Amino acid sequence: MGRGLVGGKTCAIISGGEATALVGVEKAQLIIACDGGVLPALAQGIVSQVVIGDFDTYQGDLLELRQLVGVQEVIKLPADKDDTDTLAAVKYALASGYTDLVLYCALGGRLDHLIANLQVGAYVASNGGVLRIWDPAQQVWCFGNDIEFPIVFPVQPGYSFSLFALSDQVTGVTLQGAKYELQQATLHSTFPIGISNQWVQDEISLQFTTGIMAVVLSKL
């Protein structure tokens, strides 16, 4: 996790959604917990350097939280705000120079929070970063056209992969090593043609010209 798609420092962000195993979190250069994300972190022995949120979920003593060894900053946000706790954490990470972000506890639970987190991925991509949403059963990569192409995804036995346009369209999409390959194609946000593809080689190779894309790896 030390070096990501854009070759920058990695920040792990533990969101307040359905708790999952936090595999690989300890390898990040910065760990941020968002509100209720403090609970799975502490339960798994992970202390976040930064804790941020309006704390409508985490009901513990913030003073005690500040005194935990390893906690460097606790940021209390107002309850009435435009940014979600997760987006606030993302903005903190980007402002601190982190361009590769890994988001945990963000795919299960409420559908509206899931959609919001995908939009957070688009926000990261529009600001030159990459967001990977990690879950035991699936992963989502969100990135724009300003990373070094082509990028490759090694075969994952027991998984399918899908391509989605997070912007209105993604142009110049070239995909190789897959059952359904693409050559200079355009994906649209209104047509899910890129769903449920398969590897036919040891890796797939992907590149595109403009837009923001999500690559979803799903366990079958």
Strand order of the largest sheet: 4-3-2-1-5-6-7-13-9
Proportion of β residues?
25-35%
Q: Tally the beta strands.
A: 13
Class of secondary structure makeup: alpha/beta
Largest sheet: 9 strands, mixed
Order of helices and strands: EEHEHEHEHEEEEEEEE
Radius of gyration: 18 Å
Name the average pLDDT: 91
Shape: elongated
Task: Give the termini separation.
Answer: 25 Å
Helix content: 10-25%
Instruction: Show unreliable segments.
Output: none
Blueprint of the fold:
Layout lengths: L9 E5 L15 E5 L3 H6 L6 E4 L8 H5 L6 E4 L8 H11 L4 E5 L6 H16 L3 E5 L3 E7 L6 E4 L4 E7 L3 E8 L5 E7 L14 E5 L4 E8 L1
Parallel strand pairs: 1-2, 1-5, 2-3, 3-4, 5-6
Antiparallel strand pairs: 6-7, 7-13, 8-12, 9-13, 10-11, 10-12
Brief descriptors of the model:
220 residues, elongated, 13 strands, nine-stranded mixed β-sheet, alpha/beta, four-stranded antiparallel β-sheet
Structure, described:
By secondary structure, this protein is of the alpha/beta class. Helix content is about 15%, strand content about 35%. A nine-stranded mixed beta sheet has the order 4-3-2-1-5-6-7-13-9. The longest helix has 16 residues, at about 110-125. It is elongated.
In a few lines, what is going on in this structure?
This protein has 220 residues and is α/β, with parallel strands linked by helices. It contains four helices and 13 strands.
